[in-house]
Amino acid sequence: MNFDRELDARGLPCPLPALKAKHALNELASGQVLKVIATDPGSVRDMEAFARMTGHRLLSSTDDNGEHAFFLLKKK
Q1: Share of the chain above pLDDT 90, in %
Q2: Distances in whole angstroms, Cα of residue 54 to Cα of each of 7, 57, 61, 64, 65
Q3: Catalytic residue among 3, 4, 14, 59
Q4: Cβ atoms of 58 and 72 closer than 8 Å
Q5: Phi, psi at 40, each rounded to 5°
Q6: Which residues are within 8 A (CB) of 53 and not within 5 positions of it... i.e. 6 or more apart?
């Protein structure tokens, strides 16, 4: 999947990946995509809740042996 910016949140505990994603999305223009990589298992639940609460769209999430990748579309 194409993305405009990547955020490496590996090793950060909850809720830091979601908080850092919020700051990164603030720097993007509407319609751009942020890729977040996290290793905290709770980040799956947190990113889903973050997208729901903020209106940003979680395009996809993957798990590759404990490394989670999230693609967030900044709301318009």
Answers
A1: 96
A2: 18, 9, 17, 26, 28
A3: 14
A4: yes
A5: -70, 125
A6: none
* Domain range summary for the chain, segments of one domain joined by +: 5-73
| Mean pLDDT score, 33-58 | 96
Pick among 3.40.50.620, 3.30.70.100, 3.60.20.10, 3.30.110.40: CATH of 5-73: 3.30.110.40
What pLDDT shows up at residue 20?
97
Q: What is the pTM of this model?
A: 0.95
The mean pLDDT value of the chain amounts to: 96
Query: Which band of pLDDT confidence, cut at 50, 70 and 90, is reported for residue 76?
Result: confident
- Burial readout 24-62 (b: 16 or more C-beta within 10 A, e: otherwise): bbeebeeeebbbbbbebeebeebbeebbeeeebebeebe
Is 18 known to be catalytic?
Answer: no
